[in-house]
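Q: I'm writing up a methods section and want to include an example of the input and output format. Could you take the sequence below and give the corresponding predicted structure tokens, formatted cleanly so I can copy it straight into the document?
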Amino acid sequence: MSKEIEAIATDIVECAYLVHKHFGPGLLESAYQACHAHELRKRGRVVLTELKLPIIYDGQEFEQGYRIDELVDNLVIIENKSVDNVHPIHLAQLITYLKLKNIKLGFLINWNVKLIKNGIQRVVHGLEESPNKFIKKP
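A: Here is the clean output for your methods example:
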């Protein structure tokens, strides 16, 4: 990963810690998302939220159903959840967004955990990284 993407990743994790430290578990996903995006913007990051992600099939563009929770500096996707348990479908959703947008790095953040470090998954698509990065691969 480039130094630029790693700097974004660091900001994402640090901002998640700040927001979670303030609220803890129990809020709606949308509340965490708004506060997290705000913290990232305070650091100078460009954050788009609820970004429509069309799919192309048979030469046609369809805007049915896909929305990226947070796109940071057009380089990293964040999928926010506030659930009791993260399921494989949540990870598959993020991987689909990474593929459709042709982005290499994403984070799946489950805010409904006692310790936020247990709720953050770094997901890399299409690149090899060192095994000590806690990477989840499909």
